[in-house]
């Protein structure tokens, strides 16, 4: 294994996580004043609680990895499944909160899709790690993982799906494909763990790296976040029909003038 590339990969994950956190923070601060929430103190608490919850979870994952909670092969799969599903279910639960519905109504639907572009970075990281010898080939686009398609298409889809009117069917199909893709790579990652009953891929390199600092954030934060954005995007498209008239009017007018 190439240690310098491994360290570079760690820096990439740290920067990616900071980028996602910054996007969430900026997004919440931007949409809260434009929603129906008029209480500034309530807006501030929403941002504060959300960021504190996420950062506390990230810190917990680091501590679990640091103190060796991922070294027992008998319980490793169950622990990682919990680490993946806990934040995923929390994100889904938050979507049921009335206050969140107000924020979702004020969110630019393009952002919910465009943010999935971060998966380009994770896919390139896997490719880099494969070349360096710490990522198994089945986790890269060399073999079984094609999640990079979601990342690349997100940049275009975030514009095309909102030209003229909100294309609900296309949004549903694209997000469904994205959900299947992220669940697929999570399954491959877990099925590549060493010395577990669930290990399906007996390649020379395994996926042990996803349990190490800070790679644990991929399973414990980045992928649950991706799932949440897919679900939020679908829900917004089919719930708030006014978005196609208000949120994206400027973009639509601009594109119509170009045509």
Descriptive overview:
It is a single chain. About 6% of the residues have low confidence. With 259 residues, the chain is mostly helical. Helix 1 runs antiparallel to helix 2, helix 1 runs antiparallel to helix 6 and helix 2 runs antiparallel to helix 9. The radius of gyration is 19 Å and the shape is globular. It contains 10 helices and no strands.
Strand content: under 5%
Q: What is the gyration radius calculated from CA atoms?
A: 19 Å
What is the H/E order?
Answer: HHHHHHHHHH
Helical/strand content category = mainly alpha
Gross geometry: globular
| Total helical segments | 10
Largest sheet: none
| Helix content, binned percent | 55-70%
Mean residue pLDDT: 85
User: What are the segments in which pLDDT stays under 50 over at least 5 consecutive residues?
Assistant: 242-256
Work out the number of β strands.
0
CA(first)-CA(last) distance:
52 Å
List the SSEs and their pairings.
Layout: H1 3-31, H2 40-66, H3 73-94, H4 98-106, H5 109-114, H6 118-132, H7 148-160, H8 168-190, H9 216-239, H10 249-258
């Amino acid at each position: 294994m190439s240690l310098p590339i491994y360290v570079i990969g760690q820096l990439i994950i740290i920067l990616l996580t900071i980028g996602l956190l910054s996007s969430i923070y900026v997004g919440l601060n931007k949409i809260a004043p434009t929603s129906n929430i008029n209480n500034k103190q309530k807006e501030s608490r929403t941002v504060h609680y959300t960021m504190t919850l996420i950062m506390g979870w990230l810190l917990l994952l680091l501590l679990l990895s640091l103190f060796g909670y991922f070294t027992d092969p008998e319980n490793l799969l169950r622990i990682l499944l919990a680490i993946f599903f806990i934040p995923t279910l929390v994100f889904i639960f938050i979507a049921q909160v009335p206050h969140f519905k107000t924020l979702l109504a004020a969110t630019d639907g393009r952002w919910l899709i465009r943010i999935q572009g971060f998966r380009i970075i994770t896919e390139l990281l896997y490719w880099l790690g494969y070349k360096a010898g710490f990522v198994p080939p089945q986790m890269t686009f060399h073999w079984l993982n094609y999640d990079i398609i979601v990342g690349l298409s997100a940049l275009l889809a975030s514009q095309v799906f909102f030209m003229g009117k909100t294309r609900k069917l296309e949004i549903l199909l694209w997000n469904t494909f994205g959900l299947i893709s992220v669940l697929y790579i999570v399954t491959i990652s877990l099925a590549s763990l060493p010395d577990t009953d669930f290990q399906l891929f007996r390649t020379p390199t395994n996926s042990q790296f996803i349990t190490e600092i800070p790679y644990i954030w991929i399973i414990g934060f980045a992928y649950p976040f991706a799932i949440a954005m897919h679900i939020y995007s679908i829900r917004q498209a089919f719930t708030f029909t006014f978005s196609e008239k208000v949120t994206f009017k400027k973009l639509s007018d601009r594109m119509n003038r170009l045509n």
